[in-house]
Design a protein that fits this description.
- The protein is of the alpha/beta class.
- The chain has one domain (4-443): 3-Layer(bba) Sandwich (FAD/NAD(P)-binding domain).
- The protein contains 14 helices and 21 strands.
- It is globular.
- It binds flavin-adenine dinucleotide (FAD).
Length: 446
């Protein structure tokens, strides 16, 4: 079957797919980006009267990554810095402020001074934020505009990658017109992707085919490419959903992000531009369902109980949406001429706000490996090259999976002994500068 020729096909145009295409194109690779949605991932949602405002916390390392792609100025315009992070162990019956760990950008200042010279416009006399918060629609919008300007990228929207065949010379990628929104936890929907790949193999008529050296799967948690490549996942269902929304408030947030840990789940507030904060509230599916469907005024009352009074009066800004919360980690990141990136390789609990940051570290590593291969004239889909990418990513992903999974287990348990250990542990750690510096570095993605 003949198809359009390119160097790499990127399946999926979410935040990871768009940056993968951009980073590779800037290294001189020809890329075809195939995205199932006809419009930019959340454009249709954002045209509604009351769209859901979804906030992403980006580590400093992610900021640096986008800056190197030439997007620093645009990102600065649409993001809000995180100067301080408060972690609160809370109990619904014993008040919201049981014990706090407070990590500030000042805790990371030594290292910041050391690296300020090679960083971007954000660095000022060692005073650098721990990270920043950006709204999903603004980030996808700026990435989509950058992709549209890149001559090395051909963007194919409204097509779904449904099958592929690899041989010694390359990979043939088959697509179909996409009639519905794709399944993706990140789209706040839950359905099975395997139906799309199995129906693909039963039909001979494909919409378009592309021939490349390598296929890069950025098609999210329910990756059809991963399923078709025969790569299985280690999974854990946390028995939770995550409610996402934004709130307007009376007082300034001062760039403070707060995470409350409770036995039933976590509640995080992320500072947005203006007097607004993004909320990620994880709890049992039944409680989240109730919180999503209750009247706005009742919801605001529930949120105020969690928040306390530090931001003054609160009001809901836009709609509420919920997402399933689970862990899924691919057992391999590569197979014949295929590499997995972002949520297709690893979907983690949102409690640490690190999923996208982790995905962008995949993109940085893959770009490095493929551009090394390009300069040496190697086959970019070869097993040797793709295994190099996998080896570079295994440790980082394993560490973050252990951290998020471990935190979820530690704080999601209300045993008296564990609770006492947590409270005294947090109190002690709050007085150890070296630990807090390490926490500040981790938040910054260093
Ligand atoms: C509640 C919540 C809060 C979070 N907060 C944070 C945070 O603060 N910070 C952070 O770093 N991370 C956070 N994350 C994680 C982050 O959202 C994900 O890691 C990130 O969105 C993954 O991006 P992706 O591009 O890999 O996948 P997705 O965003 O799922 O994108 C996949 C894309 O592929 C397309 N697609 C699917 N199938 C196909 C196909 N067969 N062919 C072509 N296209 C296809 C889809 O339309 C979609 O556009 C959060 C996650 C949740 C659930």
């Amino acid at each position: 079957m003949a198809g359009a020729e390119t160097t790499a096909v990127v399946a999926g145009g979410g935040a990871v797919g768009l940056t993968t295409a951009l980073a590779l194109a800037k290294k001189g690779l020809k890329v075809i980006l195939v995205e199932a949605r006809r419009e930019q991932a959340n454009a249709a949602q954002h045209k509604k009267d009351h769209p859901t405002i979804r906030a992403w916390a980006l580590a400093q390392s992610s900021w640096n990554f986008l800056y190197k792609l030439g997007l620093g100025t645009e990102l600065q315009a649409v993001s809000s810095p995180i100067w301080d992070m408060r972690i609160v162990e809370a109990h619904p019956l014993r008040g919201v402020d049981s014990r706090k760990l407070h990590v500030s950008h000042r805790d990371a200042v030594d290292r910041a001074r050391a690296t300020a010279a090679d960083e971007n416009g954000q660095a000022t006399n060692g005073a650098r934020p721990l990270g920043c918060v950006v709204e999903e629609h603004a980030l996808l919008d700026l990435l989509s505009r950058a992709v549209a300007l890149e001559a090395n990228i051909r963007c194919e929207r409204g097509l779904r990658v449904v099958d592929f065949e690899s041989d010694a010379r390359g990979i043939e990628v088959m697509t179909r017109a996409s009639n519905e929104e794709p399944a993706a936890d990140n789209a706040g929907q839950a359905s099975s992707p395997s139906s799309s790949s199995s129906s693909a193999s039963s039909s001979s008529s494909f919409e378009r085919c592309f021939r490349a050296q390598v296929l890069l799967a950025c098609d999210g948690r329910h990756s059809a490419v991963r399923t078709r490549a025969g790569i299985s996942c280690r999974r854990r269902d946390y028995g939770q959903r995550a409610l996402v929304c934004a709130l307007s408030h009376e007082r300034e947030h001062g760039g403070v992000a707060v995470e409350w840990f409770m036995p039933s789940g976590t509640f995080a507030s992320l500072p947005l531009l203006g007097r607004r904060s993004g909320i990620v509230w994880c709890d049992s599916p039944s409680r989240i369902e109730r919180l999503v469907s209750m009247e706005a005024s009742d919801f605001e009352r529930h949120v105020s109980v969690r928040f306390g009074s530090w931001l003054g009066a609160l009001s809901l800004s836009g709609a509420r949406t919920s997402y399933p919360v689970s862990l899924s980690v691919a057992r391999r990141y590569v197979s014949d001429r295929v590499a997995l990136l972002g949520d297709s390789a690893h979907g983690i609990h949102p409690l640490a706000g690190q999923g996208l940051n982790l995905g962008w570290r995949d993109v940085a590593a893959l770009t490095e490996v493929l551009s090394e291969g390009l300069s040496l004239g190697e086959d970019l889909g070869s097993e040797a090259l793709l295994s190099r990418y996998e080896r570079r990513r295994l440790g980082d992903v394993r560490r973050l999976v252990m951290l998020t999974d471990g935190l979820q287990r530690l704080f999601g348990n209300d045993s008296g002994l564990l609770r006492t250990a947590r409270l005294s542990g947090m109190g002690l750690l709050d007085r150890v500068p070296a630990f807090k510096r390490r926490m500040a570095m981790a938040a910054a993605g260093a």
